[in-house]
Write a structure and sequence with these properties.
Blueprint (H helix, E strand, L loop, with lengths): L2 E3 L5 E7 L4 E5 L12 H5 L4 E5 L16 H14 L5 E6 L1 H12 L4 E7 L7 H17 L1 H12 L2 H6 L1 H9 L1 H4 L3 H13 L13 E6 L7 H10 L4 E5 L11 H12 L3
Parallel strand pairs: 3-4, 3-5, 5-6, 6-7, 7-8
Antiparallel strand pairs: 1-2, 2-4
Helix pairs in contact: 2-3, 4-5, 4-9, 5-7
Amino acid sequence: MPHVRLRDGAELYYEKHGSGPALFLVPGLGGDGRFWGANVEALARHFTVVVHDHRGTARSTLSRITYSVEQMADDALQLMNALGFERVHWCGHSTGGAIGQVLAIDRADRIDRLVLSATWAKTDAFFRRLFEVRSLMLKELGPAAYLKSSALALNTPAWVRDHDADLAAAEQRAHETIPVPEIVLSRIAAIVAHDRRAELQKVRAPTLAVCARDDTVTPLYFTEELVRLIPGARAYVLPDGGHAYPNVHGAEFRRVITSFLLES
């Protein structure tokens, strides 16, 4: 399996698909590149698609460090350098969108076009309380309970109804998916601390913010704030799909971001 060794010796698992302009598809808090599912193959018809597992998750090194969104951005930049990409399109979902904000502000020369998917610029009381509850579930009840509760936050009722068996199977494997709960707790602390709202006016990359109207993790008002504060940014709001809308409305998600990324 392909890995890139980071400067501190940790390794990032990555995959590269297709050809064309470079597109980094970056998942959320779970950190597993497999989040993108069939979207990878379809987008690879137009782009060189790179997906990776965040450090601390899935097939990357389970580093016991203090995580931050800036650290995640630096890891991604090291991956970009190792693969020889000077500039890339960036599509980041949730935590991946927070990472994209950091790079678009701090390393504007490396980001061509920016898609911010179901993400936020600064934590508010709702977001903080939601992740306090999720952290408590993991600490007090363990990985299976954490996954069970997370599924209810991330997905629509209809999706949960139709994927009950899949969710139950994932819960059975919870201790394999989350072998080191302390890493997840540190990553949660990192995203709760994320705050780039005051610097968003520095973003120069053409930016599209996408979300679903019924998202209960990063509500619509977060996307509206991003569009208000990033110069020239625009929004696309799907009527439904929840926080994990790219896996509910994949064809529409791909149509919208492909059109944006290929604009001349």
